[in-house]
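ASSEMBLY PREDICTION REQUEST
Request ID: AP-0331
Submitted by: J.K., bench scientist
Number of chains: four
Total residues: 298
Priority: normal
Notes: Please return the full assembly, not individual chains.
Input sequences:
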Amino acid sequence: MPKTPRNKSGPKRRSECPLNASVEMLGDRWSLLIIRDMMLRGFRSYKEFLECYERIATNILADRLRRLTTNGIIQASPDPTDGRKLIYSLTAKGIDLAPVLTEMVLWAAAHENTGNQALVRQMQSDKGKFLAGIRERWENGGGSRSGNE
Amino acid sequence: MPKTPRNKSGPKRRSECPLNASVEMLGDRWSLLIIRDMMLRGFRSYKEFLECYERIATNILADRLRRLTTNGIIQASPDPTDGRKLIYSLTAKGIDLAPVLTEMVLWAAAHENTGNQALVRQMQSDKGKFLAGIRERWENGGGSRSGNE
DNA sequence: AATGTTACTTGCAAAATGCAAGTAATAATT
DNA sequence: AATTATTACTTGCATTTTGCAAGTAACATT
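STATUS: Completed
Returned structure:
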């Protein structure tokens, strides 16, 4: 029987829709969680991520941090008090993901039984203020640990 | 030498943060693209998805449609004019993903060279109106392609 | 110099994925 | 009624990706 391949027809213009770019950078199991924990929990070091995600493999974590850095979402700088450490922080591009995360959290909270109702209520009651707070904390001081957990 | 595992310490309360639920349902390469194309391009059938995503495998597409259905984001109903077909449509939960998609598109548009500037400008100029339009189209008529019905 | 910590890399088994090739259920055509 | 085509999948298998234990280089501390 002759071959009758099914997937050869569509034109598939990459990045025709902007969402393709987002999915390429964030469409996996870990990237958004890493960004969330930098943004909301103030995670800065490899060790914090490794100990937090019980199931993430060390090489996967290293790869995701590298990819997020390559994509300009986070940046790594040496710790001045300890030459061995790298301090990871969000770039402006990374901070701009706050609205995406917020909408995802609100969506899940509306349709699932999720935890951390305090955070959800804070987002719901004044979304703009919540986002402004995140931006402010990151723009001066480079992202201190917030009260959200 | 004794084992010294690295990943056994963190408590890792699942769904402590609502984002975990979102990532479990949407954190892969295809799910959000499927939702986007149902929402913005009016895709309804297995065949449309298969021909559009040049690189998606048939079993992966079937799996993602099944998972999205299981998660209550889309639903499948038989086509009354052709008993062989299934018509996929967004549920209320799926429609509620519009703000997430919108923020992702706007984020990518702000930081990458993405296509479809018309869509982006429409989102930017009046986000609320854009979202209302999507909801309206889906709430009466089950999501027509454009001005149908 | 010995020991500990950090931020990785390596090796390998297991799981997920991609792709060609089926297949059952229908529909259209002859 | 038989033939052909289409849809919406499933199956089998090779390739790729991931998870985990173990190792390591570069410091830092004692």
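REVIEWER COMMENTS: Chain A touches chain B through 56 residues (CB under 8 Å).
SIGN-OFF: pending second reviewer
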